[in-house]
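**Backbone shape codes:**
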Amino acid sequence: MATKRIASQVHKQASRLIREGYIQREPAWYRAVLDNPPLPLPAREPPSRTHFDTPEAVALTRPAHAAKISPLPVEYVEDQVRKQFFRDHPFEAFREKSLVENEKVESEHPVRGEAWKRLKQRGRNPSPEDAIRYAVNLYEHQNVNLSDAYASAVAQFRSLRSEVTIARQVALAEAEALGVEFGPSQTEITFRKESKAFETFQDTTEQTRTAETERKRWKAVVEREGRPDHWTKGQEYTRLWKEGVRPVYAPVFSEPEAAPKPELTPEQLAQRLSAQADFLAVTGKA
């Protein structure tokens, strides 16, 4: 009965038959096939793990002291200096910096190692990374302890930044004195864009009202008099219909209309003409 199964399923079928009692005694090949099961089909399916590779078996063969072994933390001096630097200078993290890489990786600065004794050797406008690398360089190549190296790097960094700030202020004052007019800064341009976006939200009510008017262009707009919740059960409409009054759905004008002139009888017309100076020319009795 088990021989009708494919090769990878014979031992599984035999296990089910033994478990249900259909086979009273294990075949001679049963244990050998369980220890070395055939490859499953399809071939892409991973083979089943043997009892030697189960987590329970691995835990039994593992030495007792192996469970206490843990990887050591990976720490670099640069990370410690960088963490302390940005803790002391938090606003340096807000300075813009381009993250776009060039065609090739930038090579290391030629001034490094024992030749790098002052921070300004790499420029008079250093970046935070320059100050951090300078502190680590003093620690590794100048035999200075890390605390003194960090203090020296921070002091030189602040001095150079102060020089750059004062130079920019002087240049700006000279340019304004010569009549140079500067355009809006990037911050001002951003604020203008935000204000323009806020104005679009303020016009939402007017746009909604205009859209409703456009939708009601071909609909009758009825202005009813009296309270909106007043219902006459159609009695007023029926009364006006019996009297021959047709309903008018046009809006009610708020401005008074000119009353039509009443028609005059011949006697009233003659009296009005006699009150004028040229009534004889009108009547033809001149």
Confidence is low (pLDDT under 50) at residues 279-286. The longest helix spans residues 146-177.
